[in-house]
Every structure is written in structure tokens, then in C-alpha cells.
Amino acid sequence: MSSVKQVADFARSSCAVASTLDIIGDKWSLLVIRDLFAGKSTYGEMLASGERVPTNILADRLKRLEEAGIVEKNAYQERPVRFAYTLTPKGRDMGDILIALVRWGRKHIPDSTAHAFAERAARATAKPRVTKKPKARRA
Amino acid sequence: MSSVKQVADFARSSCAVASTLDIIGDKWSLLVIRDLFAGKSTYGEMLASGERVPTNILADRLKRLEEAGIVEKNAYQERPVRFAYTLTPKGRDMGDILIALVRWGRKHIPDSTAHAFAERAARATAKPRVTKKPKARRA
Lengths: 139, 139
Fold this sequence. Notes:
Chain A is mainly alpha-helical.
């Protein structure tokens, strides 16, 4: 069974936690999403991250996340073709999950660090501020 | 390498997201934590959950979570000995992670449902309300 089929066919229950973990419940997917929040977009940039994701795993996770509508890719170069990856709105909605993971880690795992992406994730998921229209002046 | 050693020895980077996923980054650990938030405490209760966790995986995850200080077990019966599992304060701090997963799932996965545990998780992680002391009456 291909990893792509797994995303489509595998559903353990209707529970929202289980259903979400069916997509991103592994050691790597959320690190790819973290990198995209941090502004990385190419395969090479993600391979260079501190965790040294194996190349076959990175390729598999990007494909799965694209199939799940969380990531989209666009060619930025032809011959050889090269792709840039970005988060879709559905992917950007994962900011709160990352922030919760960061907060727990910072509190409970000694010497763990929060990277700049956390702030970006927070901004990306923040509700747009309602700006009051300036009152029309009477002429 | 035993699963217990993995928890202790495996650290991909100092990133708080990666470090947290080293502990609970798989399809099952957060479902066990969900069940404990929902008030389940015995092995049999957790085996009966809708996702039908395989018995060897449940045993492994409970052991790992105990090693990581997220879950604690206490014998509630002798001969044969039976254990009840509960979340430690460190485990209860995972409520925000579960809530973020629930919200994302409810928004993006059709027909996914939030169970009662979400509310309990929210209560468990909510800051205690500051109660004003009643003013001392003048005699």
C-alpha cells in the first residue's frame, strides 16, 4: 500500500484527534510543517534542517502532505525541474498545534528551544484584527 | 534497542517541537493520552476504544509514557495484579496539544467528532481562577 493511499483510506475512527493523527501522527510530518512555517520552501533547505531528515522520508512526507491538501508545490525552475513547497490555508491552520507542542516542550524538556517559526505560526493563525473604519467627516 | 531506551537516548535536535515529537510523535501515544483525559484508567478500557489499538502497541506506549513521566501507574488489585493509569501533571499539560488537534480535525476533516475529553482537557489545562478574598467586615 502506498503512503498516498494510506492517507486516503486509513481512518481509525471518527474522532478528530485520531483522524488528524492519521495524517500527521509521526515523528517527521510536523517538522516539515514547522520548516515551511519558518520560511523554508525547497527540498534542499528542508534536508539541511538540524534533525537531518532522511531524503526518502522527506520525499514521502511532502507527497503525503500534498495529497492531504496541507502543502502545495510549484515549479520554480525548468530543466532540471525544481519545486518550491508552501503551506495551504489548511496547512497554516496547523500553527496552533505547533505552538502547543513548542510550549509543552519548552516547559518540560530541559534545554529545548523555540525557533522563530513559532512566532510566525502564531501570526499566521491569529485572527485578523478588526480595524474600525474612520468616521466619515461631516463636510 | 528497546522502546524505553528510545525515549531516553533519542534526541534529534534541541528544537522543542522535535523533542516533544520524539516522545509522542506517533499515531497512538496521543490517543492513549486522550483516553486518560476522558477518564479511562485501565488497560481493558483503553483496549476497548474505537480505534482498536493492538495490545502490544498499547503496552509499549504506556511503558514509554510512564518512562517519560507523562503517565503513572498504580496497582489497584493484587493476585492477579492490575494497574490503573493516570496522567501526571506533565501529562495533563498536554491538554492544549489535544485541543489544537481536535480543532484542526473538526475544521478540516469531514464528519470528524470531538469527544467529551476535549472539554475535560480544556478544564485541566485552564489557569485556576483567581478568587477574590471576601473583604473583612468591620466589627
